[in-house]
């Protein structure tokens, strides 16, 4: 099986990752791998994502564990079905660990025992079943903007998510991707392209083209990756 190189798009809930990836997929010739939301929403007919948000104390460890496993499954399945040499992934096992699971532990919704278990098997899995990314794209977005977008898209599972939760996750993303605090050495030096996504880019073709060119230029220079903008991109936006 051929293994693709990977660039990972990271950002807070409501930063616009899915929309960003859809638009970038129209501009750049890559394989996009989205988060496996449908698996989280239908586990034998039950909605684990909804259960997590409604009773985080009960379901935090379960959800974080399942999110990690299904993320690896999605990437492996993508490797089997693509001819592309490059994938762009929506989030990663690293944001699982450095942002969401860590935040659950600090909030007290994941016990110290569960946090230790998570870290133990997380370290083993990423050593044996994941590939080191070539780079990250961080959609840096103020939590207040994320909250407004979250309310606008009105997903039923997210109806109880408060601004304070998004603020904590924003701090975790900043500490990891900007300040490199308490990050494992093997991932610390992976290049990070930071894009200011405060402005709504969904209906702004020129801004999307600007982002696409920044991605191509950044990863050509920092990662020696040969990305190219599609010749007919003027027609696809």
Short description:
The chain is α/β, with parallel strands linked by helices and 237 residues long.
List keywords for this structure.
single chain; 237 residues; alpha/beta; Rossmann fold; five-stranded parallel beta sheet; 5 strands; 57% helix; 11% strand; globular; disordered C terminus
Number of helices: 11
**What is the overall pLDDT average?**
90
Structural class: alpha/beta
Oligomeric organization of the protein chains: single chain
> Might you state the CATH topology name?
Rossmann fold
End-to-end gap? 33 Å
Q: Name the CATH superfamily assignment.
A: P-loop containing nucleotide triphosphate hydrolases
Q: Bin the helical content.
A: 55-70%
Largest sheet: 5 strands, parallel
CATH class annotation = Alpha Beta
Strand order of the largest sheet: 2-3-1-4-5
Count of the separate structural domains:
1
> What is the CA-based Rg, rounded?
17 Å
The count of DSSP E runs of length 2 or more, i.e. the number of strands, is 5
Note poorly predicted spans: 233-237
> What is the string of SSEs from the N terminus onward?
EHEHHHEHHEHHHEHH
